[in-house]
Amino acid sequence: MTAPYQSAVRELLFKMADDNLIMGHRNSEWVGLGPILEEDIALNSIAQDQTGYAWRLYQMLHQMQEADPDSLGFLRQPREYKCCHLVEYPIVDNGIGEYDFTLARHFFFDHAQLLRWDLLRTSSFEPLAQLAAKAMGEVRYHVFHANVWLKNLLEGNEESRQRMTEALMRTFPLALGIFEPGPHEAVLNNEKIFAGEDMLKSQWLDRVTAFLHSLDVELPDVTSVEPVYGGRYGYHSDHFDNLIAEMGEVLRAYPDAQAW
Amino acid sequence: MYGTIHITEEEYGHFAEMLRQEDPEKLAEFEARIERGEKIEPDDWMPRLYRKQVLRMIEQHAHSEIIGALPEGTWITRAPGFRRKMALMAKVQDEIGHAQLLYSAAETLGKTREEMINDLLSGQSKYSNVFNYPAKTWADVTVIGFLVDAGAIINQVTNSKGSYGPYVRALERICYEEAFHLKQGHDAFVALATGTPAQRAMLQDALNRWWRPLMHFFGPPDELSKHTKVLTKWKVKMATNDEMRQWFLDQYVPKIWELDLTLPDPNLRKDPETGKWEYSDPDWNEFFRVINGDGPLNKERLAVRRWAEEHGRWIREALAKPDKTYVTPFA
Amino acid sequence: MKVVSLDPRVARLEFREEHWHHQRPLRKGEQWPTYEVFQMKKRGTQAVHVGIVHAPSPEIALAFAKEQYTRRGTTVRLWVVPSDQIYSTAPEDEVIFATTPEKIHREPFAYKVKEKIERYKKIRKA
């Protein structure tokens, strides 16, 4: 692997790992607080899958001479993470909503993940292609779960339709932040590592728009929306510092510990 | 076919009068079935007392699982590293799954999940006392994961030999999953015990704080509890509180001591002649205070559950199906 | 009102007076009706009843069944059936099945073929 190839792979791995780690972390916050027992169990599985992908991706980075997965995941400084703002928002007290926000985020995020893994199945970076083949089955279920919830709630009663529609509208700019182009887009594309954020965004827009249209929900024209960017360059939302402090709390308190 | 049985105060205690109201032939057939080792299924005839006691037992167990998810669930966002984070997420997921299985088993006896949740949230139904205490540090998570789960397993394995079909089926599934809980709990516990002095100190402190709640775990001593022969005869209660406590001490105190950890009871020892464990009286007044609402976290635990039910209401109501009939589950 | 709690998640929740008392009980049907779940673990084997889920619709029931009953081991198919669509024999009908073990004419062990062959061979020898 040439140096530019490696840099491009690194960038991609970090942003995917960070997205999945933080998304899994936020989803896990619903444990014991879910709207009904069975759904509490369901969201937990999704959180585990996402945390699992993060772990695998950090392991790939470790193979490329980065630090060990626990250090990468739990002990970097906030500015070193490359996740998008969408995944950072807390489950409550976030200015958008609660389970309605979580479902809207889940819908947007997992549709993007499914398409991303699909594009990565033919990646020239072998470890990613292999992981993509595995992840597709699981994320297919994440998307099924999100679609089923959205359909049921948008067709539920007036309140659920209104809440979900509003949550989708207000989450949309955050969701667009998934596709913030990074510094290595050209190399990723030319070296056939990954087809790029623009391609991904285009496929994603087609899919989510079509699904929502079938339920009489029209997203605003994407050109009229200001996407929430910054995450891919280490600039995070106001919520992020607290999240990172909490996540690394125990590890940081015992710096000499060799094992847990 | 089975004739009738003679109901004496000696055999049935203060339930004798209530049982004389039941159909004597059916009662005899019911008892013969249990004695043969056969299970009672939901649509079988059963004395009202059996239905009431079994329902209360399963319901309390279900409530314990859902509340029990909270002290450990709180540490998921702070778990030290991927392995522990994933394990804890899976473990707490299982606990909520166990609550679902147990509510389902309890529903077969004719009480709805709405009614059971209402009784939990109004304070009318009880749950295991041990969850009214706070998990202050990561070490608390390992103590709960190892020793509280160990206690739960003893309870569950014992009760899985009971007479009520749906409860037995739920417990078999639960026991299978608990094997993972105990292993990963013990693993995390030993990691701290064999770690740095700071990790060991954190663990020892947690042990010191959790020992009394653990001694309370199996309930009051036999002489204080209203032990009724009939519950044993009907295979509702499969062992006494003290019996289970002895099994727990016998299996797990050595595992604590082998790591050179101490327990805050200078009188704790196994009598080499009788084989029985001796211990200081663990303050049963505290037990009764806490189970009646005056523990460190009773109010918070229920407030959190009420928050969850309230904030999920819009979803449950949006999709409620008033025209669909709810039927009591068959199995 | 934010609660001072050792649990950072709980500290982030907004509590109101009503959370300290159970003021609005769950209504009948609020936990949704139930579906019976059947799981086929391996191709070529039977789909077996494993329990119930509470769900508002068949697709949500399938999702919930996947979560609750297939966290471990293998699964190839999962079925859900609304509980009110299950028909059962009554407990009194258990007697119908009582004499089935006696119907040995349906069992291979009721046919003593070897004995007949031995007898024939003995006679033919003589």
What do these coordinates show?
The complex is a heterotrimer of chains A (260), B (331) and C (126). Chain A is mainly alpha-helical and 260 residues long. Helices cover 65% and strands 0% of the residues of chain A. Chain A is built from eleven helices and no strands. The two termini of chain A are 35 Å apart. In chain B, helix 7 (138-159) crosses helix 11. Chain B has 331 residues and is mostly helical. Chain B has a single domain, classed as Ferritin, CATH 1.20.1260. Helices cover 63% and strands 1% of the residues of chain B. In chain B, strand 1 (269-270) and strand 2 form a beta hairpin. In chain B, strands 1-2 form a two-stranded antiparallel sheet. Helices cover 24% and strands 17% of the residues of chain C. By secondary structure, chain C is of the alpha+beta class. Chains in contact: A-B, A-C, B-C. At the B-C interface, helix 5, helix 6 and helix 13 of B face helix 1 and strand 2 of C.
Q: How would you summarize this macromolecular structure in one to three sentences?
A:
Chain A is mostly helical and 260 residues long. Chain A has eleven helices and no strands. Chain B is built from 13 helices and two strands; from the N terminus they run H-H-H-H-H-H-H-H-H-H-H-E-E-H-H.
Which helices and strands appear, and what pairs or packs with what?
The complex is a heterotrimer of chains A (260), B (331) and C (126).
Chain A: H1 3-28, H2 37-63, H3 69-74, H4 85-88, H5 99-120, H6 126-154, H7 158-176, H8 185-190, H9 197-213, H10 240-247, H11 249-253
Chain B: H1 9-12, H2 16-20, H3 24-35, H4 48-73, H5 82-107, H6 113-121, H7 138-159, H8 165-193, H9 197-216, H10 229-233, H11 241-257, E1 269-270, E2 277-278, H12 284-294, H13 298-318
Antiparallel strand pairs in B: 1-2
Chain C: H1 8-12, E1 34-40, E2 47-54, H2 58-69, E3 77-82, H3 113-125
Antiparallel strand pairs in C: 1-2, 1-3
